[in-house]
């Protein structure tokens, strides 16, 4: 690790591992405050211009977005010959994927406690001309104070002066139909993805399903949004209305982040109760990471 990094931080145990690097816990040499240190091996992406761009793009976007209470904060960036090291705030309170898998379904008030800070983070991104492009439960983290932090900006893209962007980016269950269809698109792809996250929290399964990526894409392109009675019988009409406005194939009718935040369901706090799973029913959470 770089000499400067080792002066500023004491690198401790490994806490995660990804395709291009390792995440360590690190402590400030001055305050002993804990952080997460993401060390990316640049040699693994030397021959891939797309991955290399994502690597440097992530640090740049995070610096633009910080500080924000609901966006993972970046503190320092160090680079040596072989590695790029990014110091970010430590989130060791699990991610939303783990919580959905454990809870199966959320009550409406519980779902709102996730959606409000998530949509505030997305609105912050959009106000700065940044589309996240990979909103999914795995990228929604919680710290030890249970505060939500939107993370993983490697797929983000800048939108300048209302211009559209392109590129098939995202995760099958959550990606918007205009992305799959190869059309140019704007930041509202994040609203679609966040709507899918909300649907999964309330139902325990995704709105568009398939046994393979191609089948999922076909279902997303059809965009036949349904609310099965067994899962949505006790979900409020306001919640379903918001889902329709977020998971709308017609981008012109799809809500913006600010419109989502102003929707009555988000303001009123939801009126649902935690719903028990019926005897003999096994409700699996089908989310693709």
Automatic annotation (TrEMBL):
Molecular function GO terms recorded: ATP binding; protein serine/threonine kinase activity
Keyword terms: ATP-binding, Kinase, Nucleotide-binding, Serine/threonine-protein kinase, Transferase
Binding residues for ATP: 38
InterPro entries noted in UniProt: CDPK_Ser/Thr_kinases (IPR050205), Kinase-like_dom_sf (IPR011009), Prot_kinase_dom (IPR000719), Protein_kinase_ATP_BS (IPR017441), Ser/Thr_kinase_AS (IPR008271)
UniProt keyword Transcription, yes or no: no
Domain Protein kinase: 9-266
One Pfam family this sequence matches: Pkinase
Homology family: Belongs to the protein kinase superfamily. CAMK Ser/Thr protein kinase family. CaMK subfamily.
Protein's recorded name: Protein kinase domain-containing protein
Species of the source: Cinchona calisaya
């Amino acid at each position: 690790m770089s000499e400067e990094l080792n002066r500023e931080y004491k690198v401790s145990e490994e806490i995660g591992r990804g395709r291009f690097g390792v995440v360590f816990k690190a402590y400030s040499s001055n305050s002993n405050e804990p952080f997460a240190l993401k060390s990316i091996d640049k040699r693994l992406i030397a021959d891939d211009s797309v991955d290399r761009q994502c690597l440097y793009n992530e640090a740049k976007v995070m610096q633009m977005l910080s500080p924000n209470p609901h966006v993972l904060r970046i503190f320092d960036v160090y680079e040596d010959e072989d590695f790029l090291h990014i110091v970010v705030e430590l989130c060791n309170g699990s991610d939303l994927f783990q919580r959905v898998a454990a809870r199966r379904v959320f009550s409406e008030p519980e779902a709102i406690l996730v959606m409000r800070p998530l949509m505030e983070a997305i609105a912050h991104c959009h106000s700065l001309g940044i589309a996240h492009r990979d909103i999914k439960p795995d990228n929604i983290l919680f710290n030890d104070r249970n505060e939500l932090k939107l993370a993983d900006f490697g797929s983000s893209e800048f939108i300048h002066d209302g211009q559209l962007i392109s590129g098939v980016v995202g995760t099958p269950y959550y990606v918007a139909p205009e992305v799959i269809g190869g059309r140019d698109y704007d930041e509202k792809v994040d609203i679609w993805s966040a709507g899918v996250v909300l649907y999964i929290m309330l139902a325990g399964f995704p709105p568009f399903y398939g046994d393979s990526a191609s089948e999922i894409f076909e279902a997303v392109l059809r965009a036949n949004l349904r609310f099965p009675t067994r899962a949505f019988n006790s979900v409020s009409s306001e919640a379903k209305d918001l889902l329709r406005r977020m998971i709308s194939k017609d981008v012109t009718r799809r809500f913006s982040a600010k419109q989502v935040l102003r929707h009555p369901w988000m303001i009123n706090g939801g009126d649902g109760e935690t719903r028990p799973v019926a005897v003999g029913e096994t409700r699996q959470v089908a989310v693709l990471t």
